[in-house]
């Protein structure tokens, strides 16, 4: 097994074990962002929650981030619009990238759907390294996003 496959094969059950359907979504997202920060080599990891026509920052770990992102804007808003994960190898080459930290060089954003296939939030992860995220991350993080769907 390659190292990322192995990483996610351990991380997904950890996230699953942390999820508590008897507490609110913010408590769950707080713990999920903490375990992702512990297990993934990243600068920033957290959630932006859909609130009316914009994304609003939710639980996260890492440097202070922007509070609001409009629909379709930045990598996060585009992920919401397209309803699909986006991997950015070099944030400087992504035209509409919203820079929250000058240290961020690459990024992955994954949508989290409710049971009606509406995007309710996005999971955003930033790295100080170029091209830190690949198809294995996308597969692993989409699985983690689907665990969150069970809470919505
Ligand atoms: N880079 C994101 C903004 C959020 S921060 O990375 C935490 C974007 O372009 O949407």
Fold and architecture overview:
This protein has about 150 residues and is α+β, with helices and mostly antiparallel strands. It has one domain: Beta-Lactamase. The chain has four helices and six strands. It has helices at about 5-20, 25-40, 75-80, 135-150, and strands spanning about 45-50, 55-60, 70, 85-90, 105-115, 120-125. The chain has a six-stranded antiparallel sheet, with helices on both faces. The protein is globular. The chain binds methionine sulfoxide (SME). Methionine sulfoxide (SME) binds near residues 98 and 107. Methionine sulfoxide binds near residues 44, 65 and 69.
Properties at a glance:
152 residues, globular, alpha+beta, single chain, 6 strands
Helix/strand class? alpha+beta
| Element-by-element helix/strand order | HHEEEHEEEH
User: Total domains, how many?
Assistant: 1
CATH class reads Alpha Beta
Roughly how many Å is the radius of gyration? 14 Å
Given as residue ranges, the uncertain stretches (5+ residues, pLDDT < 50) are: none
Largest beta-sheet characterization: 6 strands, antiparallel
How much beta, percentage-wise? 25-35%
Percent helix:
25-40%
User: Which geometry do the CA atoms define?
Assistant: globular
What would CATH call the architecture? Answer: 2-Layer Sandwich
């Amino acid at each position: 097994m390659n190292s990322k496959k192995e990483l996610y094969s351990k991380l997904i059950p950890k996230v699953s074990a942390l999820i508590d359907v008897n507490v609110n979504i913010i408590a769950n997202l707080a713990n999920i962002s903490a375990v992702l920060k512990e297990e993934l080599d990243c600068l920033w990891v957290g959630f932006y929650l859909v609130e009316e026509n914009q994304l609003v920052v939710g639980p996260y770990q890492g440097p202070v981030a922007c509070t609001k992102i409009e629909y379709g804007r930045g990598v996060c808003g585009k992920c919401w619009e397209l309803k699909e994960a986006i991997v950015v190898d070099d944030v400087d080459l992504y035209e509409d990238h919203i820079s929250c930290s000058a240290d961020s060089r690459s990024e992955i954003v994954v949508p989290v759907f409710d049971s009606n296939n509406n995007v309710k939030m996005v999971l955003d992860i930033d790295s100080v390294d170029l091209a830190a995220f690949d198809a294995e991350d996308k597969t692993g993080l989409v699985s983690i996003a689907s665990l969150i769907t069970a809470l919505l």
